[in-house]
């Protein structure tokens, strides 16, 4: 079930949003402040953020930018009474995927939300590659029946490799999938890959490997 974080300081609006999203088949959580939202975003996995701009302890535009700078590419939709073009443009430039002006109809909101759910739906399916199983929703990985604890980006990289079922995945593909501004994060791939390989090796030894293919990229493969 897709999970949505509602960042809104008006309890009544939050209540209406949570009720209608639940009826539409979504799991929801909410935050009323910048800090609360930031903590939840880092502690949990969300498939969509509905973000107000005016928050008691900060600005939703800054929160959006902070989320993107952290490397998190979760879809973000602004819900705001600020309708001037400059604010809308800044929201998009800061990394938002959509901007919905208050007051809005619930049917319009549902259409916007479903647009992003369709994009994420294929990525909600459990991935299996030999004795490797990945549950993208629960963020759980098991290798040969043993659970592995991975960081967010490590899990995303492993999921991308597993979906390719042994085919080569280019470095550029990994960067573009994980980061909006790929050029800023090029060196972090090596770090994530090193940690990921070590954690897999601790469980599977040399049986499951992420192999480097010189000049091309990486490949996940089982060794006899």
UniProtKB/TrEMBL annotation:
<feature type="DNA-binding region" description="OmpR/PhoB-type">
    <location>
        <begin position="124"/>
        <end position="222"/>
    </location>
</feature>
<dbReference type="GO" id="GO:0000976">
    <property type="term" value="F:transcription cis-regulatory region binding"/>
</dbReference>
<dbReference type="InterPro" id="IPR001867">
    <property type="entry name" value="OmpR/PhoB-type_DNA-bd"/>
</dbReference>
<dbReference type="Pfam" id="PF00486">
    <property type="entry name" value="Trans_reg_C"/>
</dbReference>
<dbReference type="InterPro" id="IPR036388">
    <property type="entry name" value="WH-like_DNA-bd_sf"/>
</dbReference>
<keyword id="KW-0804">Transcription</keyword>
<dbReference type="GO" id="GO:0000156">
    <property type="term" value="F:phosphorelay response regulator activity"/>
</dbReference>
<dbReference type="InterPro" id="IPR016032">
    <property type="entry name" value="Sig_transdc_resp-reg_C-effctor"/>
</dbReference>
<dbReference type="GO" id="GO:0032993">
    <property type="term" value="C:protein-DNA complex"/>
</dbReference>
<dbReference type="GO" id="GO:0005829">
    <property type="term" value="C:cytosol"/>
</dbReference>
<feature type="domain" description="OmpR/PhoB-type">
    <location>
        <begin position="124"/>
        <end position="222"/>
    </location>
</feature>
<dbReference type="GO" id="GO:0006355">
    <property type="term" value="P:regulation of DNA-templated transcription"/>
</dbReference>
<keyword id="KW-0597">Phosphoprotein</keyword>
<dbReference type="Pfam" id="PF00072">
    <property type="entry name" value="Response_reg"/>
</dbReference>
<keyword id="KW-0238">DNA-binding</keyword>
<feature type="modified residue" description="4-aspartylphosphate">
    <location>
        <position position="52"/>
    </location>
</feature>
<dbReference type="InterPro" id="IPR039420">
    <property type="entry name" value="WalR-like"/>
</dbReference>
<protein>
    <submittedName>
        <fullName>Response regulator transcription factor</fullName>
    </submittedName>
</protein>
<keyword id="KW-0902">Two-component regulatory system</keyword>
<feature type="domain" description="Response regulatory">
    <location>
        <begin position="3"/>
        <end position="117"/>
    </location>
</feature>
<keyword id="KW-0805">Transcription regulation</keyword>
<dbReference type="InterPro" id="IPR001789">
    <property type="entry name" value="Sig_transdc_resp-reg_receiver"/>
</dbReference>
<dbReference type="InterPro" id="IPR011006">
    <property type="entry name" value="CheY-like_superfamily"/>
</dbReference>
